[in-house]
Design a protein that fits this description.
The chain has 10 helices and 12 strands. With 319 residues, it is an alpha/beta fold. It is globular.
């Protein structure tokens, strides 16, 4: 005889972390996991590109199960069913938290229907606490004007973290705060540098009732510069200085570049590029046999031109 789950059964807190490309979502997630060492925490990482770089960067010692959803947004109809089913796999694990890192390209206007589906499929095993949006203070004012994804992520969130505040002055911060309030008057707002926030943000239910659709009607509905992504894969190891030269050419036409590159000195490096910063650092192990970089492009044609010019000079063989 089957017994239906009691309504008194512990509900696992479900929190979604969103934010545009390079805002600091993965760093935030790792910082939170570091403070949850004594808790059982499940993690779902969503990547819009063909490879899930962020999933490789989650500290595996600090969580109790990680799932990857790649090549699209969990809020898109093409993947929302897979997202709900992935959440359902965690319902019997007696977790303290389930944290979801969404794609930087996500447009979360379908969040309400997705949460309703989660309730139905899991027999209300999860308590949706709300959505946290982390924004890049240095680039926010630029991208919010032209990219619908950046605006929607703010409008549909319940808590907004203004990150990288060490890179802006007080006047710029107040302008960013004002823009966020115009997009979402109901959201709580806090600030951070290096995505360093206290885990206490997960301890209360901040999900609020707001009419985000009405807010979005007041904004431009069309992306002026809709980002595209391209996977650059090359089979030969390359020299460090040639990699840096390539990244310096690509950064001006990209929103985000990330991936793993194998160097001629048998090192593997993590490439992590935002619009204002190139970071290349040693990675503990080789991730792929071939080097792979995902490029989220502001100008895809220029990116392709740069790759074409450099492929024989730098790589020798580009697939």
């Amino acid at each position: 005889m089957s017994v239906k789950k009691s309504s008194e059964h512990k509900k696992t807190p479900l929190i979604i972390i969103t934010g545009f490309l390079g805002a600091g979502k993965t760093t935030l997630l790792n910082n939170l996991l570091g403070q949850l060492k004594d808790k059982k925490t499940g993690v779902i990482v969503n990547e819009f590109g063909e490879i899930n770089v962020d999933a490789q960067l989650i500290d595996l010692d600090k969580q109790d199960g990680i799932s990857e959803i790649s090549n699209g947004s969990i809020f898109c109809s093409c993947l929302s069913g897979s997202f709900v089913n992935t959440i359902a796999k965690y319902k019997d694990l007696d977790l303290d938290y389930l944290l979801v890192e969404s794609s930087g390209m996500s447009r979360p206007k379908s969040i309400d229907s997705i949460i309703e589906n989660v309730k139905d499929v899991t027999e209300e095993a999860f308590n949706y606490r709300g959505m946290i949006c982390i924004v890049d203070a240095f680039n926010f004012s630029k991208i919010v004007q032209s990219l619908a994804a950046a605006r929607e992520q703010v409008a549909y969130s319940d808590l907004v973290i203004i990150n990288k505040t060490d890179l802006v002055d007080d006047a710029d911060f107040k302008k960013i705060e004002s823009t966020i309030k115009s997009l979402n008057p109901e959201a709580e707002i806090t600030k951070s540098s290096y995505s360093d926030v206290k885990v206490d943000i997960l301890e209360h239910s901040f999900s609020s009732n707001k009419d985000a659709e009405e807010i979005l009607k007041k904004m431009k509905s069309v992306d002026l510069n809709r980002p595209e992504n391209i996977l650059l894969e090359f089979k030969v190891a390359i020299e460090s200085d040639k990699l840096n030269s390539l990244l310096e050419e690509l950064i001006s036409y990209s929103y985000r570049i990330k991936g793993f590159v194998n160097l001629v000195d048998e090192r593997t490096v993590l490439v992590n590029v935002t619009q204002n910063n190139i970071l290349v650092k040693d990675h503990k192990e080789k991730i792929f046999d071939n080097s792979k970089l995902v490029i989220f492009a502001e100008d895809i044609e220029k990116i392709e031109e740069i790759i074409k010019i450099n492929q024989f000079i730098i790589f020798g063989d580009v697939s």
